[in-house]
Amino acid sequence: MLELTYYTRERCSLCDEGVEQIKLALSELRYSDVKMRSIDIDQDDALQEEYMIRVPLLMHEGQVIQEGIIDFVYVYDYLKDIVGKE
Fold first, then answer.
1. Rounded Cα gap, residues 5 and 74, in angstroms
2. Residues 70-75: contacts with CB within 8 Å, 24+ apart?
3. How confident is the model over 39-54, as pLDDT tens digits?
């Protein structure tokens, strides 16, 4: 199972678009064994301080995949490499 963490916040159009890019990448890979945990940084002062200007931010096993603008091609390439190793 692929576990992803997505740092986001409400009323964030980049965050909304990022989710769509991630879903599209997973769809293209035809991979559905994914657990994506979304974390709203505004619910935690420490997270807000750390990620305020970095959201949206996608992580896998503690490693930042991409932040700011989530790009389909970059996410697809990263996930393709990871899925191939599972």
1. 16
2. 70/14, 70/17, 70/18, 70/21, 70/22, 71/21, 72/21, 72/24, 72/25, 75/21, 75/22, 75/25
3. 999 999 999 999 999 9
Q: Which helix (H) or strand (E) holds 64?
A: strand 63-67
DSSP three-state, residue 23 = helix
Residue with tokens 């959201």: 55
The CA distance from 37 to 18, in Å, is: 14
Q: Are 58 and 67 a contacting pair, CB within 8 Å?
A: yes
Query: What Cα–Cα distance (Å) separates residue 31 from each residue in 9, 41, 45, 49, 83?
Result: 26, 27, 34, 34, 8
pTM of the predicted model as reported, rounded to 2 decimal places: 0.90
